[in-house]
Amino acid sequence: MNSRFTIPALIIFSSVFIMQSCDDENELGENETKISRYNEDESHNAGQNCMDCHFQGGSGEGWFNIAGTVYDSLKAAVYPNATIRFYTGPAGTGSLKYTVEVDALGNFFTTEDIDFGDELFTSVEGTTEQFMISPVSMGECNSCHGTSVERIWAK
Q1: What is the DSSP letter of 89?
Q2: Residue 2 in 3-state DSSP?
């Protein structure tokens, strides 16, 4: 075998592999911005814990700080184009800190920096706004919802 051809081939293969494994980083090694939007349909894996893949060094594109899935009131089908809000006080009191749009496939996510502070209180709005009673200190919504507590749902 001619080593003159194997070394360049190895360099090319290694470069392609390294570039593909860093999809979630830009050329400066920073997190790519990924934010769900109404009517978009590029998300996937509804109901699964998004942060199992979407973390620094993970296989998913972008390092999510908030992510989850919204279902209809029967908790059977996804609920598209809802809105998730994060407040500093319970039941919509205090200040509105963050708003995240739910896409056409029922998923919501953001790579934006989120300051949970002591804790935040969430709501989901379809045609009406419903409030989560307990505060949250992390954004891995599907790590609890759909596993140890009921799915996030809107009506």
Answers
A1: S
A2: coil
CA angle 41, 47, 50 (to 5 degrees): 75
Tokens representing residue 48 in the block: 């699964």
Domain ranges in the chain? 32-153
Q: Which two tokens stand for residue 141?
A: 């919504």
pLDDT tens-digit profile of 31-88? 889 999 999 999 999 999 999 999 999 999 999 999 999 999 999 999 999 999 999 9
Beta-bridge partners for 61: none
| Torsion angle (degrees, nearest 10) of CA 89, 91, 92, 94 | -20
For 92-155, the DSSP string reads: G-S-EEEEEE--TTSEEEE-S-----S-BEEEEESSSEEE-SS-BSS-BGGGTBTTTBPPEE--
Residue 73 backbone dihedrals phi, psi, to 5 degrees: -65, -20
* Model confidence pTM above 0.70: yes
Dihedral in degrees, nearest 10, Cα atoms 98, 36, 63, 32: -110
